[in-house]
Amino acid sequence: MKTLFNAIFLLMFSTAVMAQQTVETPDYIIHYNAFNSTVIDADAAKKNKLVRSKYTAMLNISVFAKNADGSSSAVKSFNSGTVENLLGQQQQLEFVTIAEGKAVYYIASFRFANEEVMNFKVAVQPDPNKQPIAVNLTQKFYVE
Questions:
Q1: Structural domain for 113, as ranges
Q2: pLDDT of residue 5
């Protein structure tokens, strides 16, 4: 489990340096990134029931509540969404919740072809009494 946490942590923050992938509202910060599933350790993937394949990628989402003191805390959320290629072929995203200590990650696997551009539309809802927060992403994927 620790290996999965380390891999996700490195992916989130190395990606953030290249392209800021966050959505911020007055109450929440949502970090997200998509990556090829082969970067996840095989044992960690099996333990968390995640599919690893050169034709499978993952979307990772983490949600943080903004605290009054300026810090933030990981929070749980309900997430739903789709991923679609340029031909209009759509896949429903089914998120798996991974909680490690105070960290909470939501990971959804999806299939892709080499050099395929994928469009993501995700609704993140940390508060069931408020409207979901839209997360949209377009990314090209390569078989590794």
A1: 2-141
A2: 52
Q: Measured between alpha carbons, how far is residue 65 from residues 2, 44, 124, 141 in Å?
A: 23, 27, 13, 30
The count of structural domains within the chain is 1
Q: What is the 3-state secondary structure (H, E, C) of 56-94?
A: EEEEEEEEEEECCCCCEEECCCEEEEEEEECCCCEEEEC
Per-residue confidence (pLDDT) for residue 16, from 0 to 100: 40
Residue 34, amino acid: A
CA 126 to chain centre: 15
Domain harbouring 121, CATH code: 2.60.40.3340
Q: Is the pLDDT of residue 106 over 60?
A: yes
User: Taking the model in full, what pTM does it have?
Assistant: 0.84
Question: How far is Cα of residue 48 from the mean position of the Cα atoms in its chain?
Answer: 15
